[in-house]
Amino acid sequence: MRAKALLFLAVSFSFSLGADKIILKNPPKSLDKFYPPKSEKYEFLSNMHEMSTAFTGIRVNVNDGNWEKALYWAKRLRDTYVKTRDMVPEWKNYFKVDLAEKLVKAVQARDVDKTIEVSQKLGKTCSKCHQENELAVKLTYRFPSFEKISLEDPIEFMELDTGKYMEKLTNSMKIMKVYLLQGEAQKAQEEGLNFVERARQLRTMCSKCHTSKVSEEAIFGKTYEDALANIENLLSAENPDGKKVIENLMKVTVSCTKCHNVHLVPAVVRESFGR
Ligand code: HEC
Ligand code: HEC
Ligand code: HEC
User: Is it the case that residue 73 has pLDDT exceeding 60?
Assistant: First the structure.
């Protein structure tokens, strides 16, 4: 009996590995209620943790031969499963409540084989929804919208959303680079200095979401400030040294890339969904 019980391993309800394509579907609007800014409690997510813990509770206790405790967790799993189904009506077909009931019955009957069999079937209902929705939900809800963040352009004195600001910033950077690379460093001055101003202004957006300076410092350290000051000085010279400007520019763009690594993908997914 015990040997067989030990075969009752973790049920997998995670992403599927080895997929050759991943589709991101716009999550149903009714999920909004359970995420910021509408709710700080993450109710949907917290049910997920609850169900996952309950699964472990069943497994651990069946392996221990403690059926009473296993039953406690099976009931908790069923109750949370039902509650979760009712939270997002658009997703109700993913849930097979009869399986959650059958699991309670199998545990009640102290039937190891049946408990394993039904657990696995129930686990498949979890993973089906995860494959189709989990990633998109994480990308959509874990970060606030960058589109609602605006920045004042220090050159044209207009409030711009993040996307528009990035465009102006990049445009001045690229114009500067073109002139530098074709050996016309003087012509690079105007847009180059605009770029420096715009790159400095970037810092002001962090505090619109981050309450501590730690995240800001992780991306804009002294190297960033120094490199911008160097570009400014170099470009202000009568005959700017284009090569040195480019060298310093590379130190600046490391910070752009770092921030994009954290923030760009979720922001773009969110924007594509119009969220
Ligand atoms: C908050 C951290 C952050 C920093 C720092 C930052 N960006 Fe961005 N950037 C973003 C986000 C978010 C988007 C997506 C905006 C959108 O699409 O609405 C973006 C989009 C862009 C885009 C649009 C094209 C694309 O890749 O999809 C360019 C180009 C860009 N940034 C250039 C820069 C440059 C150059 C710098 C540095 C001088 C920089 N960014 C610094 C966050 C940042
Ligand atoms: C109808 C869809 C759906 C069903 C059914 C579902 N889940 Fe989820 N689950 C999600 C979504 C969406 C997320 C991502 C939520 C997030 O990251 O904010 C998630 C995330 C999770 C996570 C990861 C939480 C984290 O912190 O990243 C666990 C664990 C989980 N679910 C367990 C379960 C279990 C166990 C079941 C079945 C008993 C289940 N889920 C059924 C949609 C579903
Ligand atoms: C629209 C809101 C928003 C803006 C604007 C924003 N961030 Fe973030 N950032 C987040 C969220 C949300 C996380 C995820 C971490 C979390 O949940 O606390 C995060 C994570 C990070 C992280 C990794 C983890 C951490 O907390 O340090 C870094 C680094 C970071 N941001 C840097 C920046 C910088 C630099 C800026 C300004 C250029 C910036 N962010 C602007 C919302 C934002």
Answer: yes
Residue nearest to atom 31 of ligand 2 (CA): 48
What pLDDT is recorded for position 4?
Answer: 54
Ligand 3 mutation target, pool 145, 207, 210, 216, most atoms within 8 A of CB = 210
Supply the residue whose CA is at minimum distance from atom 28 of ligand 3: 215
Q: How many residues does the chain have?
A: 275
Domain spans of the chain, in order of start: 2-141, 150-272
**CA-to-CA distance for 85 and 77, rounded, in angstroms?**
12
Q: Taking all residues of the chain, what is their mean pLDDT, rounded to a whole number?
A: 93
**How far is residue 178's CA from residue 185's CA, in Å, rounded to a whole number?**
9
pLDDT at position 236 over 60: yes
Atom of ligand 3 at shortest range from CA of 206: 37
* pTM confidence score: 0.90
Read off the pLDDT of residues 151-188 as tens digits, 9 standing for 90 and up: 999 999 999 999 999 999 999 999 999 999 999 988 99
Which atom, in ligand 3's list, is nearest to the CA of 146? Answer: 1
Compute the distance between CA of residue 81 and CA of residue 155 in angstroms, rounded to an integer: 54
SS3 for 2-39 is HHHHHCCCCCCCCCCCCCCCCCCCCCCHHHHHHCCCCC
Are the beta carbons of 201 and 154 closer than 8 angstroms? yes
Per-residue confidence (pLDDT) for residue 3, from 0 to 100: 46
Instruction: Please tell me the distance between residue 140's alpha carbon and the centre of ligand 1 in angstroms.
Output: 18
